[in-house]
Amino acid sequence: MNKKNKASESVVFFDVDDTLLDTSKFAETARKTAIEAMVDNGLPLKKDIAYLTLKTVIKEKGSNYDKHFNVLTKALLGKEDPLLVALGMVTYHNIKFSLLRPFPKTIDILIYLKAQGYKLGVISNGITIKQWEKLVRLNIYQFFDEVITSEEVGYSKPSKEIYEEALKRMKADPEKSIMIGNKFIEDALGAVKAGMSAILVNSDVTESEKLRIKKENLDIKIVENISDINTIL
Asked: Which of 76, 104, 130, 192 lies most in the core, judged by the most C-beta atoms within 10 Å?
């Protein structure tokens, strides 16, 4: 980073989904329950087939698209069914919010990092208001000084630009800052390319990726749970 920026802060950046909370698990449960409600009220498919069809729609439109159930009913019925769409949306959101909670020890770790003098930020590929909503519903929003999203910045992880923007906003020294996430390429490699270090948590990092970390001497650590971060920081 340019010395004129006088970057000196030590910042710990977090990803949100599947890092601070188990997004994949609660989203799957919520979607399956929504499909059951729709099938029980007239969606003309078996529940397992309907769920697979919904997954196809999500893959095509992206997880941040907000009209998956509209597309699903139109594909199956030839037109959107407002009752079924409403049933799907309401059921999905009710289940999602009832299951939304941070991973165990997450709040303890955030308190620990603040006590150690770190500033905390979020770097996330996603829609800004959705990521803020999760932090608010988890009641952890107050820990974070900045939330930087791909929607807002115009670049997605692992692009170096989103990390550079986050470092700039928080006046952070990349050599004193770290990214914590669950994805090897998006979170870990992206951060390292921007001059930071990284910790992978809840990650399905492959053996070839582990070998790459070792061969290239990448500043990437792997821990099993978020509660293990204090052994490194």
From this structure: 192
